[in-house]
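Before the break, one more example. Copy the sequence into your notebook; we will annotate it together after we see the structure.
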Amino acid sequence: MIEWRRAAADFAHHLAVERNCSPRTVAAYGRDLEEFRAGFARMNGADPDPAAVSVADVRAFVAGLYRVNDAASIARKLSALRSFYRFLAARGVTDLNPARQVASPKKKKALPRALDVDAAAAVVEAPTAGDVDAPGALRDRAMFEVMYGAGLRVSECCALDLHDVDRERYGDGCLLAVRRGKGGKDRLVPLGKTALAALDRYLAEGRPRLAHPKSGSQHPAALFLNRHGGRLTARSVQRQIARAAIMAGTEATPHALRHSFATHLLEDGQDIRTVQSLLGHADVRTTMIYTHILNRGPAGVRSPADRIPL
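Here is what the structure looks like once it is written out:
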């Protein structure tokens, strides 16, 4: 039989030497295992026998954690016990991993961060602030307007082709065909006049300069091109939005624009099913999270109707 403290010391050595974990990580695992040992000893009058710890012992430990720990801390301590018992099993000390049979608590999902209307406008306008007419600036302005005005995921925006801009079936407006949505679902989303104006300017003045025949990797069908004439990647779009957010004096991500689109629609009175359809959500419960965002307070001082068809 191996004592708990000796087993914990061997595990720490394994983490530091064999797994090359940082001293901070090793110390964190050590604290979590020591907390379990101390709690077990208080309840049972002696240190635990590593080979005899039961699922009930681990459940009792976790139950006590709920008084002073959040879900993330409890999950981390359970993870430490699971790792410890995997180590013991690999060395033949025990065949049972009692922590593996105890479910981790569900973490509360953080509400997505939505920009207010003015902040969203500042971000999408940032690339051409001061009437910048460089092709990359025109592209980014059009791209951000489309992402915000149509509520696109960054992957959906990058996948857009020229023929996905449909001007035939919406009178004086424009429909955007999102053909590569999550789960393979297609949808049609209307574009507002501001997004369409930015897109038209990019197509007339920006894209032809990015699609120069001497550029290297060509994607002739792609709507948004990089400086080499290739299709933009999600990582590139993330960098450009981060840069625009700094220029606008705020923080934003591609998904923040999508969150803002949904939130602003609901604030302006659109029903939840319409927003679900525009976002391409399979389950309305996914869309319902934006109703919780509304409870945090007003998202802007003016209507986004110039950018989002309401």
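Confidence is low (pLDDT under 50) at residues 296-301. DSSP finds 13 helices and three strands in the chain. Try to locate both features in your own notes.
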